[in-house]
Design goal:
By secondary structure, the protein is an all-beta fold. About 0% of the residues lie in helices and about 15% in strands.
Amino acid sequence: MKKTIDTPNLEGRTSRCIYYGTRNKASKECSNEVKSDSRLPFFKHNPNKDHDEHYCGCWGWD
């Protein structure tokens, strides 16, 4: 038996990096806000918030 996963409707939603508005090691402020997409790295849909979340790589990938 296959399980069906309900995918959320992301139309019209935006996703912000989890570090949005903070400064990284290089003192650069993250301002990454993009169209919500479940393929974004570490994407998390937040239906009860204004924005979804993802990680843009602003602190590196190691």
